[in-house]
Fold:
Amino acid sequence: MSSVDAVVVGAGFSGLYLLHRLRSAGLTTRVFERGGDVGGTWYWNRYPGARCDVESMQYSYSFDEKLQQDWHWPEKFSAQPDILAYANHVADRFDLRKDIDFDTEVTSAHYDANRSKWIAKTSKGEQVSARFFIMATGCISTAQIPEFDGLHDYSGETYHTGNWPHEEIDFSGQRLAVIGTGSSGIQSIPVLAEEAKHLTVFQRTPNYSIPSQNEFMTEEYERSWKDIYSRRRAEMRLSAHGSLKDLNDVSAFSVSENERCETYAKRWAIGGTGYLGSFNDLLTNSEANYTAAEFVRHKIREVVKNPITAELLSPRSYPIGTKRICIDTGYFETFNRDNVELVDINASPIQRFVSDGLVVGERKYQFDSIVFATGFDAMTGSLFNVDIKGRDGFSLKKKWYAGPRTYLGLMTASFPNFFMITGPGSPSVKSNMIVSIEQHVDFVTESILHMQKHDMKLMEPDLGAENDWVKHVQDVANKTLFPRANSWYMGANIPGKPRLFMPYIGGVGTYRKICEEIVADNYRGFVFDKVLAVTAAE
Ligand code: N01
Structure:
């Protein structure tokens, strides 16, 4: 069995930066990645139209000044190939590949209390022992295809947006279906509609979507960031979402109806997720939220020519922003095309799949290919894919049977030296992921250095501190409208998954300050060697 200081799972943006930091801190580190190359979510989600809805000047690493000055983004909101090229560049620039095993899954990781080490087993049969075991597997990386009746009878081609093939797929001349209208569906549908002979979109719940108003990067815009990059990055770290969005810090009802509509119209014209920053009470006051939602519905009616289709596309069953808001390029316009049909599977669900298509109500639909844009087992799915067992063989799945339990989304009691990057209970998916990734990686690295400095071997949260944090995460969410939606934030998209709000929405800056205070207070809520030794002996 080989031995290293740290085993890391995943070579996406978390794993890459973690490897760089741990290695620089002098720790021998091995990273295992199930994909054939670096990039994580951007390696797998290569469906047509895939693009990031956070501006690239912000959705990028800040840890290296020269890197952020050297790299040029071609567009304001980058397409998947450009983000993947960036991940590859980072891997090469910092010589990271030599410590990454690709096409290799970590299947289990068990804590051995006698040796105070983790033993990780891989899909290639290797066993590696390590003092630290770190899951850097991302929050949205376990693709889900629902268990539709007769799915295996279907003999055409099937694809999932989150597990897209690496070779070019030619849909021209095909009868194509897309099931699902979340961010992935909404991004891919306009592109697929141009390619396929006919596209049928199966929609269970309509989504709020704002145009991205994407544009090519101008030198002027790039300079406006790069000239003061470190100052802007510092502001991002203390912001609500980890990105600089202009929040209009007044209530929607502090202005006249005309002024309110003008604000929405301006934000709509600017595009992007900044729409939700139109007023400061959109996610806490349902009447305020209604005004923002109604403006989007009005826009849908304006764009979509067929009023029945426009109504079907208009979300009404949950407040705007409580499911991840979508950002699109020509989504609603796509439903004006002659070769596109929208089918409501809320009123009448998909009954079953058959060899050449699927059946909804009385009607059979025939397809050459079906694209599942049906989402992910988010936040916990990728952690549960590895059989993780802590002290006394306690499994993570068992501990979290009623929902994830973490301290700060970083660690969980009974699992010493096991860290999660952007785990449940941290801002994670409710933030600019790269900002949150950098913060967690820095926290983990500095905690390890702290342990080394004080000659300590083990670290884990105190159960009381963990319980308080779990409660705090729910309390914060319950003050907002978020729990009102059947979202993947709530685990609602996976049958049988416990319903609770998984990310922390107290704000990126607030969360960072809490972490800093905890560290300054001698890692309040964490316990180290001595206490653990006593607990173990009891
Ligand atoms: O997945 P989703 P996604 N029968 O879960 C439907 C990030 N992301 O891949 O709403 C019928 O949002 C489901 O219907 P419903 C982003 O954080 C970012 O699109 O459950 N339909 C829904 O319409 C995003 O939120 C970017 O009723 C079923 C769809 O499938 C997250 O990834 C781009 C069904 C799933 O939508 C996930 O987005 C892409 C069933 N049994 C993704 N089960 C950007 O940065 C599910 N559906 C822009």
About this structure: Residues 433-453 form the longest helix (21 residues). Residues 51-53, 140, 146, 161, 179-185, 187, 204-205, 324, 327, 345, 373-376, 429, 488, 493 surround 3-acetylpyridine adenine dinucleotide (CB under 6 Å). The two ends are 31 Å apart (CA to CA). The CA atoms of residues 451 and 457 lie 7 Å apart.
